Automatic annotation (TrEMBL):
<feature type="binding site">
    <location>
        <position position="102"/>
    </location>
    <ligand>
        <name>L-glutamine</name>
    </ligand>
</feature>
<dbReference type="InterPro" id="IPR017932">
    <property type="entry name" value="GATase_2_dom"/>
</dbReference>
<protein>
    <recommendedName>
        <fullName>asparagine synthase (glutamine-hydrolyzing)</fullName>
        <ecNumber>6.3.5.4</ecNumber>
    </recommendedName>
</protein>
<feature type="binding site">
    <location>
        <position position="296"/>
    </location>
    <ligand>
        <name>ATP</name>
    </ligand>
</feature>
<dbReference type="InterPro" id="IPR029055">
    <property type="entry name" value="Ntn_hydrolases_N"/>
</dbReference>
<comment type="pathway">
    <text>Amino-acid biosynthesis; L-asparagine biosynthesis; L-asparagine from L-aspartate (L-Gln route): step 1/1.</text>
</comment>
<dbReference type="Pfam" id="PF00733">
    <property type="entry name" value="Asn_synthase"/>
</dbReference>
<dbReference type="InterPro" id="IPR014729">
    <property type="entry name" value="Rossmann-like_a/b/a_fold"/>
</dbReference>
<dbReference type="InterPro" id="IPR051786">
    <property type="entry name" value="ASN_synthetase/amidase"/>
</dbReference>
<keyword id="KW-0315">Glutamine amidotransferase</keyword>
<dbReference type="InterPro" id="IPR006426">
    <property type="entry name" value="Asn_synth_AEB"/>
</dbReference>
<dbReference type="GO" id="GO:0004066">
    <property type="term" value="F:asparagine synthase (glutamine-hydrolyzing) activity"/>
</dbReference>
<dbReference type="InterPro" id="IPR001962">
    <property type="entry name" value="Asn_synthase"/>
</dbReference>
<dbReference type="Pfam" id="PF13537">
    <property type="entry name" value="GATase_7"/>
</dbReference>
<dbReference type="GO" id="GO:0005524">
    <property type="term" value="F:ATP binding"/>
</dbReference>
<dbReference type="GO" id="GO:0006529">
    <property type="term" value="P:asparagine biosynthetic process"/>
</dbReference>
<feature type="domain" description="Glutamine amidotransferase type-2">
    <location>
        <begin position="2"/>
        <end position="214"/>
    </location>
</feature>
Amino acid sequence: MCGIAGVWSPFRYDKNNDKYIHQMAAQLLHRGPDGRGFHFDTKDGIAMAHTRLSIIDLNSGEQPIHDSQAQLTLTANGEFYDYKRIRGLLTAEGFSFSTKSDSEIALKLYRKYGLSFVDHLRGEFAFALFDAKKQQLILVRDRFGIRPLFYHITGEAVFYGSEIKSLLAHPHVPSDISKKAQLHQMMQVMVPGDSLFENIHALKPGHMLIIGKAGGRISVTEKCYWDAEFPLNGEHAVRSDQQHIEAVRETLIESVALRLEADVPVACYLSGGIDSCSILGMASSIQQSPVKAFTISFDDERYDEATIATEMAEKCNADQDILRVSASDLYGKNFEKAIWYSERTFYNTLGIAKMLMSKHVTDNHFKVVITGEGADEFFGGYAAFKRDMFIHDPAYQTEAMEALLQASNRVFSGSVLAEKAVSHPAFEEVMGFTPSWIQPWMLVLEQVKPLLSETFLDLLGEYDPIAAIAYSLDKSKLDGRHPLDKAQYSWIKTMLEGQILNWGGDRVDMANSLESRPAFLDHHVTELAADLPPHVRIRNGVEKWVLREAMKHLLPEVLYNREKFAFMAPPAHTDQNKTQAIQDLIDKYLSPQRVMQAGIFNQRAIKKLYKNQDVSEDHTMKTRKDIILNHAIGLHAMNDIFMRRPATEECLA
């Protein structure tokens, strides 16, 4: 795990690029505190930087890595799994290696396969490969967007970096904030490929950019090399239940075993959910010594899962460490720091809790954790997926199922499930229905619009954020698919990368130099899961049925029988201390002067919202107000940070 940054300006190399690249790298030291490496070539106009977190090949894995014979240079962030086997095969074919790192296999695979080399890479990664012979820069991001990568392109130069703050450290990269992106962040859901800034883009998951020269200008080709594929016309894999169970079990065991590979100790995150408990159970059975398991405990029993996590830790003889997070921990400076590292707003403070946990893990001398993200996405774990299956597949329609779903998710009403059905014509056109997962955010948007200033609304014009999200989806991947497949695909392409793997994953883990490895997002696992029949993923209202059965003997009985429980921090309105803590942030960031300067909100309307926080006793409405306030505070905090160049964490002070 590392940070990468660079500039390719082949037509006119700025003599100050060396200085600028050092500035870009300095913004990524939290991603790689163990070393920095640079490559400068004024003839080719390339400048590349790498900040290193040493996990594989501690003694000789410095980057950039060069292949002088082929004139290739690589900087990589992340992990390539199964690299020892691949290195052995390539060495036997005559390729020579200068390091023992996993990253170097990408150079040799590129030499052997050309651009199809990405098909042979397994893991979570974002990297830049410069081919001096072809005068070509290749930017690649893993299949799910586990590792971040952003870029800005002009006619004469390419700028890229693991985080936006790195790009903004270069004076030639503009820092104009996008009004459309601000609106999207207020309603939680971003358009894939967009960022908070105009003309700074996130490389989409499963994509590569092939950047060359043509006619005295930069040429760019975007290529999708992988996408989640659900079978057409219900033609899912035909196996017996037992065969499905065994296939899932075998593939997951392999994925976890690969992610235990490191030259430093590897721990596990452990909540009270099936996903992380399954990971711990598998890791404990594979690893010779007891696994270290880190658990977050909240000060509200309705949201706390530590008891079940402890039962799981005891079952597999893990060494459990519980971090107790209180109301005061989730706001104030920690809230601001999470904004700084995530570079976007968040609706719930669970990301802050995870940021605190990542610090606790690194304080205990671990650099790597295996995590459970991705299981809900591919095995049908979310309540919204169940609702779409019940509503849109005639074989599953039942009022009793809907009533049970609402009752069991009441504590998450306002965020996980909408209290009423809403739809949008763009989703109806693209998917045939409006997925349940986006409906709560459509209701948030309804409440956000009256809060916006006239100037902000004028700049937005007729822009429809829901339509933009719907039309970003590849309709060819949705047509002819089962409703559950459609619901899962639409979430995978939006919320998985934009939320789960961002402020709920990499960005808050790497805030404290911690590499997280989501074993369920191994593409061998996900391809198997996507081919499972819907009734194998969700059966008789039981989500992740096949995963439960595959992991049955590893899990405590109480967890095996338990319905999915969302990992979420208690909202501000649930506790007087939290309410006061968010009020302090409101006083700082939503003062009349700040609101006027930012120009996003109508001063009177936003003041009325936070002054009337406690008027309604309805949990759903109070949760929705908490969501809006979290986003509003976050947008104003980011406005403060990124109006200063270079942006630094200290800008929040």
